[in-house]
Amino acid sequence: MRLAAEGLFVKVSGVTTEEDALFAVALGANAVSFDVSRSERQVPVSTVGDIVKRLPQGVVAVGAFHHELPQRVVEVANATGLAAVELSGPAAVEDLLYVSERVNHLLRAVPYDAEQLSTAGGVDYLLVPDLDEPAALGASLELLARSGPRTPVIAAGGLDPESVIGVVQHYPVFGVDVRAGIERSPGRIDPVALGEFVANARWAYAHSEVERHFDEWTL
C-alpha cells in the first residue's frame, strides 16, 4: 500500500517520547518511528501504543523491528495501532510476505548489498542503507540509480541537516529518514537540528530537477 505524502516523505526515527514525537510532527515530519526491538532507543510496547493514540490523524506511526519473528511483528503492530512496520536484519522472503499481507505498510531496511537490494520483493518501500553510515548511503543510492528499482526508496543511514540537501537534489528518492543526525543524545531529539533537517529537505525537494515517477513504481 502506498504511503500518503505530498512532496517529499520525511520520517524521523529513534523517537522515544511523546514530546519528541509531537514536536517532529509539528515541524513537518510525515512519520515517526519507534524502536520496538532491543536497542539503546528501545521503547516499551505499551508506551508505543500510548504515543500512537495521541498522534494527529494522518501521521504515520512506524515500529522498527530487528531480526524479529514475523508473528511478533504483526502482533505488536496490531496491538499498538502502528500504521507501518520497518524490518531490518535477516528475513526470508516468506517472512516478508507474511508481514506484508497483515500490515498496512512494510518498509525494509537493507544494507549496501546488490543481491539484497535486488531481491527485496514483497515490500512497499526500501530504506537504504540499514546503518548510520554516510559512505554506505552514497554507494547504495548510486547502485539503485543504476539498477532502476521498482520499489520506492527512502534514503536513511547517515543523513543530517547538511547531507540531506545533496541526496534529495540528486537522487529520485521517495523520502528521507533521519535518526542520529538530529539527536542531542541517543533517543533525544535536538529541536534546532530537526528543524534544519526538515527545512533543508523540503527546500532541496522544491529545487531539485530530478525526475520522480512514483506513480510508475509497482507496490
Concise account of the structure shown:
This protein has 219 residues and is α/β, with parallel strands linked by helices.
Annotate the secondary structure layout.
Elements: E1 9-12, H1 18-26, E2 31-35, H2 45-54, E3 60-66, H3 70-80, E4 84-88, H4 93-100, E5 105-109, H5 114-118, E6 125-128, H6 134-147, E7 153-155, H7 163-170, E8 175-178, E9 183-185, E10 188-189, H8 191-206
Parallel strand pairs: 1-2, 1-8, 2-3, 3-4, 4-5, 5-6, 6-7, 7-8
Antiparallel strand pairs: 9-10
Descriptive keywords:
8 helices; 219 residues; globular; 10 strands; 19% strand; 37% helix; 8-stranded parallel β-barrel; two-stranded antiparallel sheet; single chain; TIM Barrel; alpha/beta
Parts with pLDDT < 50 across at least 5 consecutive residues:
none
How would you sum up the global shape?
globular
Q: What's the number of helices? A: 8
Q: Topology as H/E string?
A: EHEHEHEHEHEHEHEEEH
Written overview of the protein:
By secondary structure, the protein is an alpha/beta fold. It has one domain (9-209): Aldolase class I (TIM Barrel, Alpha-Beta Barrel), CATH 3.20.20. Helix content is 37%, strand content 19%. The chain has eight helices and ten strands. Strands 1-2-3-4-5-6-7-8 form an eight-stranded parallel β-barrel, surrounded by six helices. Helix 3 (70-80) packs parallel to helix 4 and helix 7 packs parallel to helix 8 (191-206). It is globular, with a radius of gyration of 16 Å.
